Amino acid sequence: MPLRRWVARYGDHTITLCNHWSFVPGRGKGEWLDIDGRTVLSGPDALVNMGARLSGRFVLSGAEVEITGLIGWDRVRYRGQIFIDGTRIGGDATMGTVERDALEARLGGGIARYLVIYGLVQLGLPFGIAMAVIGPQGWDGIPIFLKTVAFAGGIYGLGMGLTWYALERRALARLYPARAPGH
Predict the structure, then answer these.
(1) Global pTM?
(2) Which among 17, 25, 152, 180 has the fewest CB atoms less than 10 Å away?
Protein backbone atom coordinates (compact mmCIF):
# COMPACT_ATOMS: atom_id res chain seq x y z
CA MET A 1 0.00 0.00 0.00
CA PRO A 2 1.09 3.63 -0.24
CA LEU A 3 4.18 4.96 1.47
CA ARG A 4 3.57 8.43 2.86
CA ARG A 5 6.42 10.76 3.83
CA TRP A 6 6.48 14.10 5.58
CA VAL A 7 9.80 15.96 5.51
CA ALA A 8 11.04 18.86 7.62
CA ARG A 9 14.34 20.70 7.87
CA TYR A 10 15.84 21.64 11.22
CA GLY A 11 19.13 23.48 10.90
CA ASP A 12 21.27 21.35 8.62
CA HIS A 13 19.28 18.18 9.46
CA THR A 14 16.51 16.50 7.47
CA ILE A 15 13.77 14.83 9.53
CA THR A 16 11.43 12.45 7.73
CA LEU A 17 8.26 10.90 9.16
CA CYS A 18 7.12 7.85 7.19
CA ASN A 19 4.04 5.64 7.19
CA HIS A 20 3.62 2.42 5.21
CA TRP A 21 0.54 0.30 5.86
CA SER A 22 -1.01 -2.78 4.34
CA PHE A 23 -4.11 -4.88 4.85
CA VAL A 24 -1.91 -7.95 4.35
CA PRO A 25 -0.29 -8.99 7.65
CA GLY A 26 3.47 -8.57 7.63
CA ARG A 27 3.51 -6.36 4.51
CA GLY A 28 3.16 -2.96 6.16
CA LYS A 29 6.27 -1.48 7.69
CA GLY A 30 4.38 0.67 10.20
CA GLU A 31 5.70 4.15 10.84
CA TRP A 32 9.18 5.44 11.48
CA LEU A 33 11.13 8.64 11.94
CA ASP A 34 14.44 9.23 10.17
CA ILE A 35 17.04 11.86 10.95
CA ASP A 36 19.44 12.42 8.06
CA GLY A 37 18.45 9.08 6.53
CA ARG A 38 18.94 7.03 9.71
CA THR A 39 15.89 5.48 11.39
CA VAL A 40 15.76 6.59 15.03
CA LEU A 41 12.17 5.72 16.02
CA SER A 42 9.64 3.19 14.76
CA GLY A 43 6.22 1.97 15.74
CA PRO A 44 3.42 -0.42 14.83
CA ASP A 45 1.07 0.12 11.91
CA ALA A 46 -0.97 3.31 12.34
CA LEU A 47 -3.86 1.72 10.43
CA VAL A 48 -4.61 -0.58 13.35
CA ASN A 49 -4.32 2.18 15.95
CA MET A 50 -5.97 4.92 13.86
CA GLY A 51 -2.92 7.07 14.43
CA ALA A 52 0.56 7.05 15.85
CA ARG A 53 2.81 9.14 18.04
CA LEU A 54 6.57 8.70 17.86
CA SER A 55 8.63 10.76 20.30
CA GLY A 56 12.19 10.85 21.56
CA ARG A 57 15.02 13.14 22.66
CA PHE A 58 17.98 13.64 20.32
CA VAL A 59 20.99 15.92 20.00
CA LEU A 60 20.75 18.05 16.85
CA SER A 61 23.14 20.89 16.05
CA GLY A 62 24.65 20.62 19.52
CA ALA A 63 21.38 20.94 21.45
CA GLU A 64 19.13 18.27 22.93
CA VAL A 65 15.63 18.51 21.48
CA GLU A 66 12.47 16.45 21.68
CA ILE A 67 11.28 15.29 18.26
CA THR A 68 7.67 14.14 17.93
CA GLY A 69 6.02 12.69 14.85
CA LEU A 70 2.23 12.42 14.72
CA ILE A 71 0.26 10.46 12.15
CA GLY A 72 -3.51 10.82 12.20
CA TRP A 73 -6.31 9.43 10.05
CA ASP A 74 -9.52 11.32 9.26
CA ARG A 75 -11.24 8.28 7.68
CA VAL A 76 -10.14 9.52 4.27
CA ARG A 77 -6.36 9.86 4.35
CA TYR A 78 -3.40 9.94 6.68
CA ARG A 79 -1.82 13.21 7.68
CA GLY A 80 1.48 13.66 9.49
CA GLN A 81 3.22 16.35 11.46
CA ILE A 82 6.74 16.78 12.82
CA PHE A 83 7.42 18.78 16.00
CA ILE A 84 10.62 19.97 17.70
CA ASP A 85 10.08 20.80 21.39
CA GLY A 86 6.34 21.19 20.77
CA THR A 87 6.62 23.51 17.75
CA ARG A 88 5.46 22.17 14.39
CA ILE A 89 8.25 22.33 11.83
CA GLY A 90 6.74 20.24 9.04
CA GLY A 91 3.92 18.08 7.79
CA ASP A 92 0.26 18.78 7.13
CA ALA A 93 -0.80 22.08 8.67
CA THR A 94 -4.46 20.98 8.78
CA MET A 95 -3.85 17.85 10.83
CA GLY A 96 -4.18 19.61 14.16
CA THR A 97 -7.62 20.84 13.23
CA VAL A 98 -9.09 18.25 10.88
CA GLU A 99 -8.46 15.01 12.77
CA ARG A 100 -8.59 16.39 16.28
CA ASP A 101 -11.75 18.40 15.69
CA ALA A 102 -13.42 15.47 13.90
CA LEU A 103 -12.52 13.08 16.74
CA GLU A 104 -13.69 15.53 19.40
CA ALA A 105 -16.95 16.18 17.54
CA ARG A 106 -17.72 12.48 17.18
CA LEU A 107 -16.77 11.63 20.77
CA GLY A 108 -18.08 14.82 22.37
CA GLY A 109 -21.71 13.75 22.64
CA GLY A 110 -20.92 10.68 24.71
CA ILE A 111 -21.23 6.99 24.01
CA ALA A 112 -25.04 6.88 23.66
CA ARG A 113 -25.11 9.56 20.97
CA TYR A 114 -22.13 7.94 19.23
CA LEU A 115 -23.83 4.53 19.17
CA VAL A 116 -27.07 5.95 17.76
CA ILE A 117 -25.53 8.18 15.07
CA TYR A 118 -22.40 6.29 14.04
CA GLY A 119 -23.34 2.78 15.11
CA LEU A 120 -27.03 2.30 14.35
CA VAL A 121 -27.72 4.93 11.67
CA GLN A 122 -24.47 5.03 9.68
CA LEU A 123 -23.37 1.39 10.04
CA GLY A 124 -26.31 -0.69 11.25
CA LEU A 125 -29.13 0.62 9.05
CA PRO A 126 -27.33 0.09 5.71
CA PHE A 127 -26.16 -3.34 6.85
CA GLY A 128 -29.65 -4.34 8.00
CA ILE A 129 -31.21 -3.21 4.71
CA ALA A 130 -28.59 -5.11 2.72
CA MET A 131 -29.20 -8.28 4.75
CA ALA A 132 -32.97 -7.93 4.33
CA VAL A 133 -32.71 -7.39 0.57
CA ILE A 134 -30.47 -10.39 -0.09
CA GLY A 135 -32.21 -12.60 2.47
CA PRO A 136 -35.16 -14.91 1.78
CA GLN A 137 -38.61 -13.36 1.43
CA GLY A 138 -41.87 -15.18 2.15
CA TRP A 139 -45.49 -14.21 1.52
CA ASP A 140 -45.32 -11.88 4.44
CA GLY A 141 -42.11 -10.31 3.11
CA ILE A 142 -42.56 -6.84 4.60
CA PRO A 143 -42.65 -7.92 8.26
CA ILE A 144 -39.65 -10.22 7.69
CA PHE A 145 -37.87 -7.36 5.93
CA LEU A 146 -38.45 -4.99 8.86
CA LYS A 147 -37.44 -7.59 11.45
CA THR A 148 -34.24 -8.32 9.55
CA VAL A 149 -33.37 -4.62 9.24
CA ALA A 150 -34.02 -4.07 12.94
CA PHE A 151 -32.28 -7.21 14.21
CA ALA A 152 -29.28 -7.49 11.84
CA GLY A 153 -28.79 -3.73 11.68
CA GLY A 154 -29.14 -3.30 15.43
CA ILE A 155 -26.67 -6.03 16.36
CA TYR A 156 -24.13 -5.00 13.72
CA GLY A 157 -24.54 -1.27 14.42
CA LEU A 158 -24.11 -1.60 18.17
CA GLY A 159 -21.14 -3.94 17.82
CA MET A 160 -19.34 -1.81 15.27
CA GLY A 161 -20.31 1.39 17.07
CA LEU A 162 -18.70 0.17 20.30
CA THR A 163 -15.59 -0.94 18.41
CA TRP A 164 -15.16 2.38 16.60
CA TYR A 165 -15.89 4.34 19.78
CA ALA A 166 -13.10 2.53 21.62
CA LEU A 167 -10.67 2.95 18.71
CA GLU A 168 -11.38 6.65 18.32
CA ARG A 169 -11.06 7.35 22.05
CA ARG A 170 -7.70 5.59 22.00
CA ALA A 171 -6.60 7.56 18.92
CA LEU A 172 -7.59 10.88 20.54
CA ALA A 173 -5.72 9.99 23.73
CA ARG A 174 -2.63 8.91 21.80
CA LEU A 175 -2.44 11.82 19.37
CA TYR A 176 -3.72 14.67 21.54
CA PRO A 177 -3.33 13.61 25.19
CA ALA A 178 -4.12 17.06 26.61
CA ARG A 179 -7.48 17.12 24.77
CA ALA A 180 -8.60 13.56 25.50
CA PRO A 181 -11.71 12.92 27.62
CA GLY A 182 -10.86 12.46 31.28
CA HIS A 183 -7.61 14.44 31.08
Answers:
(1) 0.61
(2) 25
Contact 155, 119 (CB under 8 A): no
Residue 17 and residue 98: Cα distance in Å, rounded? 19
Q: What would the CATH number be for the domain defined by 3-93? A: 2.40.128
According to the 3-state scheme, what is the secondary structure of the chain? CCEEEEEEEECCEEEEEEEECCCCCCCCCEEEEEECCEEEEEECCHHHHCEEEEEEEEEECCEEEEEEEEEEECCCCEEEEEEECCEEEEECCCHHHHHHHHHHHHHCCHHHHHHHHHHHHHHHHHHHHHHHHHCCCCCCHHHHHHHHHHHHHHHHHHHHHHHHHHHHHHHHHHHCHHHCCCC
Where in the chain is CATH 2.40.128? 3-93
Task: Give a three-class secondary structure readout of 32-67.
Answer: EEEECCEEEEEECCHHHHCEEEEEEEEEECCEEEEE
pLDDT one-digit tens code per residue, 132-160 = 877 766 545 567 777 888 888 889 999 99
Residue 89 CA to residue 155 CA, distance in Å, equals 45
- Would the pLDDT of 96 be above 70? no
